Fold this sequence. Notes:
Largest sheet: 8 strands, mixed
Structural class: alpha/beta
Order of helices and strands: EHEHEHEHHEHHEHHEEH
Oligomer: single chain
Strand content: 5-15%
Distance between the termini: 21 Å
Helix content: 40-55%
Amino acid sequence: MKQTTNAKDRQxxxxxxxxxxxxxxxxARKLISDQWQVIAINRSNIPQEETELHKAIANGSLxxxxxxxxxxxxxxxxxxxxIKTKEERIDxxxxxxGGSFPELAYSPQGREKHYELMTVVPYIIMxxxxxxxxxxxxxxxxxxxxxxxxxxxxxxxxxxxxxQTFKKLLGPYAASKLALSLWTKNIAPQLAKEGxxxxxxxxxxxxxxxxxxxxxxxxxxxxxxxxxxxxxxxxAGLLYDGAxxxxxxxxxxxxxxxxxxxxxxxxxxxxxxxxxxxxxxTEYLGVPTx
Length: 290
């Protein structure tokens, strides 16, 4: 049964990917406290100590959809189909899930995992949930990018999908975030025709270290993160402002420290967009449900 709200008291509804830890968890906390409804796509459970979020789960204002692996199209498709069946609309889609991996790894589809998870999958999620966005009031997509993209030396779809070398944080991770912001920029005019706005946002430097997970960060970055980086609530605030703040009338822009910033290699933006569109049409749409 689809979720409905009283038309006279129409709450905003956000979908967040990766809302069980870090910035995504803090964003869910903020939105729930601001009386939003939240749809979350998570691999893990909400921590037990998050009592307010568990109250929200109990009363239905926080709805969790589990997936074993966002980068596995069979699992992803099952989850997205469930959302399309049960949900009525989305006001803001926060494509937030991601992370830096400690070594070169590949998705079940055979592409480098940073690229699959943080460049291709956000496109698939947006395309699959576009009808729900069209039913919403805000019709906004926020893609979580990174200032690490400034350090990318070269970008090409072949390099993105099967890199020959690996470097923590400033290698495939940074290149995938740049590719995300590039396709965000170039798809904006197409989405505008449907009334949908899209932006990519750097959430800043946040301490998202977890004891149970190898972060994939360079060795020297870890102590700096503990000492000097902001708590994840800082990043959540920047993502929220990216959706609802002063640039909400802009589309296709990359926001860095809350300001519109230039992107490198904009001449590659259309080829990146063409490739993720091709993957969506030829691979994802043909994958059977798990």
